[in-house]
Amino acid sequence: MPRSLLQVKALSISKSIQLLRYATVGCFLVFSIFQKTIAEEATTARVGDVRQHLPVADVRHPTVHEVDPSKVSMPEDDRISAPAGSPNVVVILLDDLGFGGPASFGGPIAMPTLDHLASNGLRFNRFHTVALCAPTRAALRHGRNHHVLNMGSIPEIATGFPGNTCRLPNDTASLAEILRLNGYNTAAFGKWHSTLGREATVSGPQDTWPTRQGFEKFYGFIGAEENMYEPTLHDGVTNIDFPDYEGYHLADDMTRESIEWMKQQHSMTPEKPFFIYYSAPGVHAPHQVPSEWCEKYRGKFDAGWDVLREETLARQIEMGVVPAGTKLAKTADSIPAWDSLEENEKKVFARQAEVFAAFAEYTDHQVGRLLGAIDDLGKTDNTLVIYISGDNGTSAEGNYTGNWNWGNMLNGRQETVEEQLSHFDEWGGRETYPHMSVGWAIAFDTPFAFTKQVAGDFGGTRNGTVIHWPAGIKAKGEIRSQFSHVIDIAPTVLEATRIAEPTFVNGVRQVPMQGTSLMYAFDNHDAKEKHSIQYFEIIGNRAIYNNGWLARATVKLPWENKKLSEIKDDTGWQLFDTREDFSLAHDLSNQYPDRLHVMKSQFVKEAVENGAFPLDDRLLERLLPEVAGRPTLMGDRTSLTLYPGAININENALLSIKNCSSRVTAEVEILEEANGVIFAQGGRFGGWAIFVEDGCAAYLYNDLGERKVVKSSQPLPLGSNTIVVDFQYDGGGKGAGGDVNLIVNEDPPVSARIDRTIPSQFSIDEGADVACDRGSSVVGHQLGPYRNSRFTGEVKKVTLEINPQR
């Protein structure tokens, strides 16, 4: 009988299944051979110095022929782990605190946590940074010189010169990435300052953000500085609002986050080591700290900066952190003697130092909280703590008078003492954004002559550093005087953890680290110095260290408008024997001209090899991208439309309305009487905003604390509304004034005069927001209790135009 259609189909399916079985067996055989080859190669790659190529390839396991999943056990996790017994690592980096600040190095500022670590560990009194924030941080995290990392300056003044683009290259993997790929958990808290503003938006690229630089966790701020009371923060790559509770302070907040992360990590995997990069915002401007900490220093600096230098040096010699016979290096004649000041100047300046010292001690207290939490978990003994009490010398960027609002310095304005007196009682609080006078910066850099930015002076580069590791260092309470540099930290950590420096990371051949591990000196006080040559360069100020000798050329001091030497003429060089002259007080260039010539040639060699040329001595003018030759995200665009959800947009990623005519058009929908901010740029201490108050549209220009409001008298009607702010710039240079017209729904304009504008920077870190005003408020408190002054209507879009056609 002929087969039924069903039988034919069944036979066809049966043959298909049989063929499939044969094919499957064949595939199994081929795949098994393939897997065996891969497994053998992976095993071979993991034999010997497996950690040279990161990430290490996963092991391919043999094919499983058993088809019953209940009879198959999952292979053990054979991903690479940290070497047995590897220590936890905590790197603590303070900001803008010089060698003569902490009591541990003879200074006047009580820092009990640093003292405790020093008494049970080692103090390095010839440890050096790079003289500026971002370059030091990059060099620390990557173990290479700052120009090799393209970080010759800071992202805010980056240029097109190769060593100054501030774009971290992928052939210099960070210590965090190496540790992560070797089985560590990694986290960073606080200040980052290694990402260009144009890359700090949702559009990225996010290659240079912390979570793409080896850190599994990041909590802090991306830029150079932050408001301690009302910060704009990131958790990973996500913008978050700061926790708004009574007594909030960013240093307390980041410490809480670091402790919580560390405890969670310990709870889940107590056997797994961690790496914490604790990058404190203190004591960079703004010097903001709870008032009770300031009271501890009330009256402590009334004698002035000249007496403080003398008292600090005496303590330093007595403690042995500087050699007997060390003299105070002569500073610039432009620094006034304390006794020459008027009484109001002394009153204001003393308060500046009190708040600065309080901020430093408060920061050290927060470090103590973190280390105390580690101790509570019983992890202190095998935790390597490296505490660097500053990323450069103390900052002289407050210039002669200091500032109640540091935005004035950023925009080339010097405050008067009378202005500062009006903010005296609130100094260091929520209503101020303070910095201190240069006289204090030099005093807190005792015994040296100069400060941050001066890369040729140890006042700019020498920072007291303590290393504490009970399980790894036998010596307690001793001083180490071998020359050392921030690029030595990464190699030190790798040696301590017994992890090889990789030659390839993520498929990219790596530039070798340039630092020298400090472990050779841990238990050998008299060990021969291994880091014998080091160049320095920041903003044209430069130096070369070679086996105890230092040659330097200082182009410009941060607080002076004049130049001390010319780069093009290669003038102004000095020579010092640091073995006999700790403070660089005695210039020997006339006695040893031949040696100076050799040292200058050595600098050129190092500068060429590291990509430091060409030298560029410009500073504040480079804040403007068009002056620096720095590309922006906007390029040649003259118009930008933003929508709700656009928040915290950095100035280098936004269309700049500074120093030109502009028009801003906001389209909004009113469903009922609305209030709040439609668009804001900057914050409490400088910026501008379009907002609605009591139902009426308004525009506000915040000229570094002086607010000008232009407001319509007619409430916005229900439905669609268009609000235009048209600004006609006077021209004739930067920071000029102009006429502003507020136009609502084609009604007659409300006009006003703005006599001057902010020429350079509204804010370093506070960006622009649509439909809210995150961080500190541009407008102030007049909008009432709205969280972030969020707009209660609906913003359709906001369009910015520069030099619009009229």
User: How many strands?
Assistant: 30
Helicity level = 10-25%
Beta-strand percent range = 15-25%
Oligomer class: single chain
Count of helical stretches: 15
Distance between termini? 93 Å
Shape: globular
Low-confidence stretches: 1-48
Give me the side-by-side strand order of the main sheet.
8-7-6-5-9-2-10-11-3-12
Structural class: alpha+beta
Roughly how many Å is the radius of gyration?
Answer: 30 Å
The major β-sheet equals: 10 strands, mixed
Mean pLDDT score, rounded?
A: 92
Structural notes for this entry:
- A hairpin with a 2-residue loop joins strand 16 (533-538) and strand 17 (541-546).
- The model is unreliable at 1-48 (pLDDT under 50).
- The strands form 6 sheets. A 10-stranded mixed beta sheet has the order 8-7-6-5-9-2-10-11-3-12, sandwiched between helices. Strands 20-30-21-26-27-28 form a 6-stranded antiparallel beta sheet, with no helix packed on it. Strands 25-24-23-22-29 form a 5-stranded antiparallel beta sheet, with no helix packed on it.
- By secondary structure, the chain is α+β, with helices and mostly antiparallel strands.
- It contains 15 helices and 30 strands.
- The N and C termini lie far apart (93 Å).
